[in-house]
Design a protein that fits this description.
With about 300 residues, the chain is α/β, with parallel strands linked by helices.
């Protein structure tokens, strides 16, 4: 049984569909990234999964419990860690007081371990916290009761690069322990670093659900080749060459074909230098947004 199963999930606000018949599932022990620009419908999906909003149509289950059934979802929530996109705190309490309250509600067997990685100033009032400290406090409370499922909305927002990297490493370790992780993000580099699969949402609709390795493979490779004599596009007729451009004796293109065909074509030229790299994840992502500037 999938940990999360989404079937036709739809949320309408009048004539606007924030989520439009979404269908996907998330298996135990995988990191599933939910990607899209701001306003694409990511947070609306999460609010429905957590029972904060009711679907207009369709439904979803978590650990087999229907999210429309408050009593059943309440039972499932004991196994869930949740980090909202904008955590709400009582500003006058200290970080320590906040965690003590959370511990009384759900337990805290991993609090000390987490505080070694994420270091909000617990003795200070939360009103004095920076955005990064507020986010670290939220991460600690989400994980400290050792949940089986994590649901997080933009979890690295406000974290500095070192803490982001620590967080990504922690997620990978959690996955290896069998924890299931579902998080939304618009930071495309996180896909390559931590996700097993990714759902790409556009204007409330799923544009794709992809295995990350397959997504990157379909994006091809970026090739830069410097030859002794210039390459002409007409003579370099190889299946899989996309976006050929040349300047002097250097040619650049994306290649999605058979590398044996590529090297056979290059064999007629004396190669001075060649580089073959993965394309930026942003370019692959833009494929699903039709090159729109706001994506």
């Amino acid at each position: 049984m999938a940990v999360i199963e989404v079937q036709g999930l739809t949320k309408a606000y009048g004539d606007i569909l924030a989520n439009d018949h979404l269908t996907f599932s998330i298996d135990r022990g995988e990191i599933f990234g939910y990607l899209g620009p701001n306003g694409a419908g990511k947070s609306t999906t999460i609010r429905q999964l957590m029972g904060f909003q009711s679907p207009t149509e369709g439904t979803a289950t978590i650990f087999g419990h229907d999210v429309r059934d408050d009593a059943a979802l309440r039972e499932a929530k004991s196994r869930i860690g949740f980090l909202p996109g904008e955590p709400a705190y009582t500003p006058g309490v200290t970080g320590s007081e906040f965690l003590e309250y959370q511990a009384a509600l759900k337990g805290d067997e991993r609090r000390d371990e987490l505080l070694e990685l994420f270091t909000p100033p617990l003795d200070r009032q939360i009103r004095e916290y920076s955005t990064g400290n507020r986010q670290m406090l939220g991460i600690v409370q989400a994980f400290m009761h050792d949940p089986d499922l994590l649901v997080m909305d933009e979890p690295t927002s406000g974290l500095d690069p070192l803490k982001q990297e620590a967080f990504h490493g922690f997620l990978r370790d959690e996955r290896d322990r069998g924890t299931t992780i579902f998080f939304s993000s618009h930071i495309l580099g996180e896909v390559r670093r931590v996700c097993d699969r990714v759902g790409i949402i556009r204007d409330g609709k799923l544009a794709a659900v992809e295995d990350v390795d397959e997504l990157l493979a379909r994006g091809g490779k970026q090739v830069r080749v410097h030859t002794e004599t210039p390459l002409a596009e007409a003579e370099f007729d190889v299946d899989g060459v996309v976006g050929f451009a040349s300047e002097g004796r250097e040619a650049r293109f994306t290649f999605t074909g058979d590398y044996n065909d590529l090297f056979a074509a290059l064999a007629d030229h004396r190669i001075v230098d060649i580089e073959i790299d993965e394309p930026p994840i942003e370019e692959i992502f833009m494929h699903f947004y039709g090159g729109e500037a706001d994506a």
